[in-house]
Specification:
Elements lengths: L1 H25 L3 H4 L1 H26 L4 H27 L6 H4 L9
Length: 110
Amino acid sequence: MTEWIISILLLIGGVFVLVGSIGLVKMPDFFMRLHGPTKATTLGMASLLIAAMIFVSTSENSLSVKEILISIFLLLTAPISAYIMIKSAIHHKLDSIERTKGKHNIEDDV
């Protein structure tokens, strides 16, 4: 049963990392492109690290401290680094597409 759980977590993690990587390449501007690595890839890496924790804890009958520390570091640094990059892009007045600016007017839909 443990192998099934580890396999499912690895597949889920791989799919999220793939989706985040594709989003990094395919999104039209920097602001939208930043969501791929910070959201989907972080979730994918968390899933992969949980699978690694389960594998190590069942094979060695001990708690895996390395994966826990990596998870904490990843979950703390990804949002902070994304925030800093966004603030820097805003400061440097980086161009973006109209959809990113959030200036959607309801009267335009009518």
